[in-house]
Structure formats: structure tokens, C-alpha cells
Amino acid sequence: MASRYTSLDEIHGIIFDAPDDSDDSIHSWDEDSNEEISDPHEAEDVQNQNLQRDFGNEEMHSTSEIRVPTQNRNRSSGKRQTVPEINWGDLDEVVNVAYPEFSGPQHGPVHSFDVDSEPVVFFDQLFTDELWDLLVTKTNRYARQANVNNWVDTTQEEIRCFIGFLFGTSINKNSQLDDIWSSDWVVASPAFAHFFTRDRFWALLSNIHLADNEKSVDRNHQDYDKLYKIRPMVTILKQSFQTNYSLGQNVSVDEAVVKGKGRNPVKQYMPMKPKKRGSKLWCIGCSCCAHLWDFQLYAGKEKGTAEQGFGTYTVGTLRSNRLGYPKCLTDKSLLKTMKQGDHHSTTTEGITETVWKDTKDVSFLSNVHSSMGQDNVSRKKQGGSVVAITAPTVVKDYNKNMGAIDKNDQLKKTYAIDRKSKKWWMSIFFHLLDVCRLNSFIMHQQCYLSWNSGPVEEDVAPRMDQKSFTSKLVKSLCGTYTSRKLWLPLFVTQFHISLCIRP
Ligand SMILES: [Zn+2]
């Protein structure tokens, strides 16, 4: 049986035009009323830390399924959707699964970096000058438009220090930003307080902007963009992530949620997720290193986003209530007789659909697995013993390659900025800053491997974990900047001048 080749256009069609699972109520509001940003770290939702997928866990496999319309849903018209009849047949061919040879560009950073380059070099490669300039000009413009009292225009040096400050306080885990300037030495952080006065820091955080409000299109206009507040950053980073890194052979397509309450025009409700309300991002990440390569904030279809140039094979989970799902695999008498490890498959036009019994039934759709070779997965039993459960190859392959977006999220979360804000787009701003930091760390890791590809005793660059990478990045971004007035140099300068003009 020949596998059906799926173009990336189709993948984009499937994931980015996916039907909305959520309450897509759009609120009418004016979010730019100069709201204050409240601090402390929001209590974290309970997250599933286990990257090994448990297929008995409904919420995990619901995050990574291939989306096709459900059978009884068509909200806009209220009519039942129809699809052409699909003839599913027996899967009687048993051959080994053969992946095509990978012919893409070499996996990893596109550009070469000098041996032992500083973390900030990697970060600046992704967070471009255009983005720094945008932060400076739009923040100054917004502050002037809002007539902020005693506003002093910011500079790129100050904004870099400000971003470094946010990263730094996330490693430091100050529970409340205001504690940094506390007179109580137990909770204060004088090293951070050196960079900004409290007033200047809050002035920057309250006025930081990426878009010009006066150029926004009326919300009733056809060109209105719900994401205009964050769109420039999304556009620049998407391009930057893709042009600076080449994916490996296996990629993972999944959704990520950026939690955030308030009047968010792209807020989604996802009852199966640990974070139930927030902004949803569709992401494409590299399975081997968790580099996030492409993402789209879910706010309806984007114009002109389809990628072209290479094809891909696809494996995903699929709910049994989706249109076109093979009826032979929903037969209750068949499903009842299945024991853990059993599976049944059917096929049509190069696509195979498999239902496999773990603690629950899980369905997989694949256009690469033209046979269902046997493999094993490990499962923990009560009492801690580990047993091997038989599983078709599609399960093992899915398990192995599907966790990139979760892994990226887990890695990022360790030192995430994660500050609460009343401005809905600020949570996305913080999220993208963290993704950029993590992607630059992953780039550094890949370079570390190539720098030290010789014998171990000839290693030319030290290994760096995420914490030490971020710490070095913070030091470079903050540099020697301080918003505090330094009186001593000024005094020396005046004294020097007075000496010069003395007759
Ligand atoms: Zn990779």
C-alpha cells in the first residue's frame, strides 16, 4: 500500500483552519486605559510534568490530534456537515514501516557562530534590531500619547536592560516585583534595584508597547486585526525562528496555551487543559531538540501563511466522533472484547486508522504507517512494577516524536517570566520573550555539540545549562546600565571643567 504524501499546505489547512473548540466570545472593551500591572507570580496551574504520554489520559491526546470537523457541529449555519463517503477496507498487508530518507537541510542553526559565543549573540540573532527599535519607538510614542507624567524617553540600552531585568527576576523568583526595592533587607534585591528606581521600572512596564494605537483599524472594519497589539512581534519572531534554524526530520504539531485572564479578544476555553482559559497557539517544533520553529496565535484564519517547498508525512490522534471516522472501529461489541495492548486497523487511500487499547481506547490516523508492526510500550502498574504492553508501531513513533511542544513549554517554564498583567497581550509578550530565550539556548546547545565534536579532552567550550545560559544573557543585556543618577562622575566632570576655565 502506498503512503499518501501530505503537503505542508494541507497541514496548515488542518491545524490553522481548525474548528474552534472554545467559547469564542469577543469582548468589546478599551484595554488601553493605562491599566496597572499587578505583580506577584500567579499560582501555577497543576501541569502534567510527565513528557511520556499516557494515552489513558484524555487531555493529553486531545492536544495533539489531527483536527477534522466533528459530526454534529456547524455553529454558523446550524446544519449538519456532510463529507464524501469514505470506503475503509481491511489492512491485510504486513510490511516493515520504511521512512523516507531525509533530504532536508542540515538540522540546527543556519548560521555558524564563533566558538564559545556569548548567549546574547544567540539571543540577538533571534530578537532582531528591528524588534528592539520597535519596542523603543512604540513605547515612547505610547507614553507621549498617554501624557504620562514626567516621562523621559527610553533608549535601546534601557529597554535591553529592562528585558534582562525581567529574565533575571524570573531566575531569582522574587515573589513580588515591589520586594526588589523593599527596605526589608530579607526580601529586597539590591543587585536588581541598582538598575532601575522603582518608579522608572513601573513606568516602563506600564507603557511598553509594540504597536501604534493611532494606526489601529476600527474593530468593525474588515481589516481589523484582533492581534494588532502583539502582531509586529509575532511576525518578526516567526520569521526569525524559521530563517535561523533548520528542523530535523521529525516535527511535532501541537497547541500551547498561554494563560491569561481579563478582556482577551482571542481567549479560548479549553476544558480538557490544565490551563482552561487563555490564548491558544498552534505550534510546530522540532521533535529531537524541542526548538519552536513556527507558531500561530489562534484568532481565525491568517492570510497567506501557508508554507510550501517540502512535503511531510503525518501521524496524529483522532477522536472517534469526527466526520469520516471509520464506522467499523466504533463497533461497541468489537471494542468491548479488546484487552489492553490489542488493536484494530483499517485503511483507505494510503491512510491507516488504528484503534489501540491502553487504559482507554486511543485512535491514530497515519499516512506513513502502511503496516501495523508490533512494538512495546512500558506502563507502570500499581505497586511500581513496570510491564510491557504490546502496541502497533504507530503508537511508538507517535510517542517518540510528539512531545516537542510540551517539552519546549516545560523547559521554558522553569525560568519563565510569568508575571500577571491586566493587559491581555502582555502575557503573550512575556511568553514570546521566554520562547525566544529558550530557542536561543537550544541553538547554543546545538553549537556546543559541533564546537566539541572532537575528542572529549579537546573540548573547546564549556557546557552550559539553561540557568547559567540565562544568567549570562541577563548580565549581557543589563550591562552597565542604570536609571539612577550617578552623582560622582557628574561632580568630577564639573570639577574638571572648573579647573579648565580657571584663569
Ligand atoms: Zn531538532
From TrEMBL:
Pfam families: DDE_Tnp_1_7. InterPro entries: PGBD. Residues 1-81 are annotated as: Disordered. Residues 119-305, 311-441 form the PiggyBac transposable element-derived protein domain. Residues 65-75 have a biased composition (Polar residues). Residues 55-64 have a biased composition (Basic and acidic residues). This is PiggyBac transposable element-derived protein 1. It comes from Stylophora pistillata (Smooth cauliflower coral). The gene is PGBD1.
